[in-house]
């Protein structure tokens, strides 16, 4: 299922903007594999370009290591209920070295956060003054 | 605002289960400060006990360091729109050493994930077979 | 805060449609109190009328008792992170006889459901054939 | 699809902790059927144990009857958009005696709550002082 | 998958209320096609009637044109992560004349809104007095 | 409340990147008013720059008019439960000419979409083949 077509490599090659992004994805990731998100987004070349440019920058190693960034990405994706995103970023986290022990703790934190978020919202707990930044 | 009362230390002292949890929070965190979440949850002693016991276990150092766990916690909390949780866990992350540079990258990942989750859902991208675990 | 004005009784009296709904709310609930949701919705008389008419019908006693309906309402509201709704329907549930023991169990179920929802989504568990209705 | 393997009974038997939980699920529910959630969670024995222990306790009969608890569970699951959870808990509610008439009213409340939550958030209705608990 | 049966035309014909709604959908939309949402909802005749009556009224041309209404509908559906709704309303928007250029901009706004919503929630930005309506 | 400081004009003037964005916001919007979102984001100059650059581009007039874009923005924001965003974009929509009649219909669509999304998810309606794009 999809609400747009997924571009094949042949179709991607016909639009120079799409072709350039696909080439850069392949070079950056050092693999020929282009996953479906980019093939779907390729129906909108401007959005493809701006999304890939930003993603490459945001996910690059920096003050946070790439695996930590993937875990944060999965946390957002799971909470948003995005099935595709959960699949793709879990695969990415494993490719970046996620161990079994880390995955176990990660899942435990995900579940705990969802639970206490729900309780806080049910109880409508007021923010402690100690947690507020002076503005 | 709140949908339940927040227990004062005097009130907490009257219920041995609540008193024990409050004492353990203070000992574990090495501070006298008990934040409002626990004071609200204290109206339900069984829930207070089980939540604190699980939280202490889940957030302890392990295969993932405490700061990484806080970042995952914030990611879930922000995506769930939990204002109290965003405040309390951001404060906790800073107390655990979150640097300015890390916070900048963390926010960038949070925003990027929300954006691509939304695009994936709008496009209804099918999961690549490469991302699926054989079951 | 609000994105629309909240109508006073004087202002409500000027529009016959709004006046009629306010009168019906008071008669149905046997109280003079009109809560802010209706005062805000009163800026849109058609929406006020259709929402009140439907709510009165849906929340009336039937195969499910009124308290059970309120608990379901709170469950949706808390999961949606709707602060006003959590406050108003928790107050309504208490007015309809919610006991302390029921509230404790209700909160425990709310938290448990949020936690297992999150784990299911993280693990992307496929639906068992046993749970599917033949179509 | 799934992001982890689903353990077969043979695999479950190899880990004493998993085997014990599976045996307890079967005894508690008086059926040989183990649904996929537990087979997926079985890849993380500690999480399996703690989740099952808590679920069994929370969903046991108490001040709220088991059917009411299932309806609350479905309400959270549907609002979270958890497909698996909607399927499994709807099946559970029916097994616990949910009638056609109750299901009709339940769905009506679910839809109504979602609608008024959305309107309240759009209008940003301020909480009435009458709904606030004195803290 | 579904949690209820999808009614065939033969089954729909057996209940006069369902038959009347199906006939009205066909007349209003000028097509014989009845999509699965209505076939599923037909298991609950009262909910089918009230939902269709309200939808027909709300989506009719008025101060906002039908295409704009569909885009708003998709925006809510995607943000709620409703796969069926994203599919059905995207198809409806295209049937109502959505152009390629409009779709590109629509997707860009969807992604941008999700991103800034997330940043606002992470930063817990207080509402400017200028944005508040005097109440 | 906020989890970061809100930069004053004096503080913004000290960082050339922030000063440049603030100047561009003022020039683009033809007003001296800088709302709190930008003052909070200014604590992260890179994120401020990239967010503003993208927002200015995405919200510019194009195949969709600015008011339609604001309505889509509000729809996402309300569904995400973002209070600040609901306030700021409702104000923006009114500044761009949203009429009372349009606002009434907009709210009706928002509520209707939330309701049918919820019903679709509860019923787990399968996507009709007619709504799927051939891939």
Describe this structure in words.
The structure is a homohexamer of 135-residue chains. The first copy, chain A, has 135 residues and is mostly helical. Chain A has 2 domains: 1-58, AhpD-like; 62-123, AhpD-like (Up-down Bundle). Chain A is 67% helix and 0% strand. Chain A contains 7 helices and no strands. Chain A has helices at residues 9-14, 16-29, 36-41, 45-58, 66-79, 83-95, 100-123. Chain A starts with 8 loop residues before the first helix and ends in a 12-residue tail after the last helix. The mean pLDDT of chain A is 96. At the D-E interface, helix 6 and helix 7 of D face helix 4 of E.
What are the SSEs and their pairings?
The structure is a homohexamer of 135-residue chains.
Chain A: H1 9-14, H2 16-29, H3 36-41, H4 45-58, H5 66-79, H6 83-95, H7 100-123
Helix pairs in contact in A: 2-4, 5-6
Give the amount of beta strand of chain A, in percent.
Answer: under 5%
Q: State the CATH class of the largest domain in chain A.
A: Mainly Alpha
The tally of beta strands of chain A, per DSSP, is 0
Helical region count of chain A?
Answer: 7
- For the record, what is the CATH homologous superfamily label of the largest domain in chain A? AhpD-like
Regarding quaternary structure, what we see is homohexamer
């Amino acid at each position: 299922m999809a609400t747009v077509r997924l571009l094949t490599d042949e179709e991607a090659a016909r639009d120079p903007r799409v072709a350039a992004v696909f080439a850069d994805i392949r070079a950056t990731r050092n693999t020929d594999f282009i996953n479906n998100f980019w093939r779907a987004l390729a129906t909108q070349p401007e959005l493809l370009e701006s999304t890939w440019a930003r993603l490459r920058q945001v996910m690059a190693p920096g003050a946070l290591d790439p695996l930590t960034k993937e875990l944060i990405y999965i946390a957002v994706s799971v909470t948003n209920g995005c099935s595709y995103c959960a699949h793709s970023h879990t695969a990415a986290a494993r490719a970046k070295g996620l161990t079994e022990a880390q995955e176990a703790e990660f899942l435990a934190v995900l579940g705990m956060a969802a639970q206490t978020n729900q309780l806080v919202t049910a109880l409508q707990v007021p923010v402690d003054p100690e947690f507020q930044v002076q503005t």
